[in-house]
Amino acid sequence: MNPEFQRNVWLELTPLRLVVMAAVLALAFFAAALSNGLITPGGVARALFLVLVVVWGTHNAARSVVGEIRDRTWDSQRLSSLGPGTMMWGKLFGATVFNWTGGLVCLAVIAADTLNTAGIAAAFAEVVYYVAMGVIATATSLSASLIGARRRQGRTNIEVFLYQVAGLAAALAVAVIADPTGSSIGTFPRTDTLLWWNRTLPTSTFLLASLAVFAGWMLTGCYRQMRLELKLRNGPWVWLGFLAFMGVYAAGFDAFAPLHFDEITARLMLAGLVIAGLAYVAAILEPKSKVQLRWLGGEFGRFHLGAALSHLQCWMMSYLVAAAIAVALMVRFAMLAMGPELATTGAVLGFVTRDLGVIVLMAMLTRRRGGDLLALAVLILIYWLLPSILHSLQYYGGQALFLPYRTDPLWMSPAAAWLEAVAVWAIAVTQMALSEKSSR
């Protein structure tokens, strides 16, 4: 057995806790059975699963590494012979083993309730849904705590709460999008079938399969974060594979793209937007080390392309893939003589380049942990406050200085975007050079 998981089992599954858990669950289900139809045991089981696994489980997952850091035992664990896979599985399911023990009892009641009312297929779908929700939520909290640990954060209760909130947000997204019963508050109205890559698929089956795949990606993300925390290097191929998957997955929903674009263009646009969004998320979350950035710049300067490309951070790879898609779109728009669309795509790529430069620059300028929050504040200023002021002053063309805005002449917005991008990155590179000189 996994030694880290076994250690957590000994700590979490004490006889007293198991007796209390069994008694509470039995009394809750018995009370629901005697309520004359006001509430069913299945309804109670669903609520208790959310409380035990999603709410309480995300808290325990967020604390699994943070607690070791607080107790000053994490360094000794990192120096042990346990590999990242053993440590990840042991922390993720060991710290939450008590929650999952109660959750499995609830799942049995949920399956029995749905089997009695809707059949075996519906019961299987609901079990998959709740298991995937629990795995995604707890894995998100653990991954967030590992990211915080790498950023030299994660020791205060507020930060642990934020890691738990990340898991709860993931669970809410699962509930809103993929609830097979359609009973979640705010669940998107949907039809029985959907169109994906020109194939008509059952909506519930597609969403459940998507949940299972995304749960697998979340577990992979936890494993890679644990590798980094144990001072092992991650290669680029897993993240590139994830980008390829997300691009293909998003491109299949071309029905959501504007109607006046052809199929190929619509799919490229959807893939590019999703991957560009991942670049923003990764740039905010990943630590931005001046030493690493200077090393990458030196490797590219000496044309050591293999070493440099293999050490790119996730946001850098995401940007390069998004840029490649944007260039393909611009070539396509040029071939189709679609000048406004060509200019808009060039402006979007320029502003994405500028925004990533802003995130890096704020990290270079601030020595404490507020660089990413400051970057978010600057982006809000650029994309909302300043354009709103210009709009109120009825200077509509001026909005092209801050966000993609179709103007006459068409080149104004892309020119502004790339001038700003060059300026921001020049300041960021200068700041890195100055910090290198001051450190000598």
TrEMBL record:
Keywords: Membrane, Transmembrane, Transmembrane helix
Signal peptide extent: none
Domain of life, per lineage: Bacteria
Membrane spanning residue stretches: 47-66, 87-112, 127-148, 160-178, 204-223, 235-252, 264-285, 319-339, 345-366, 373-395, 415-434
Keyword Plastid found: no
Protein's UniProt name: Uncharacterized protein
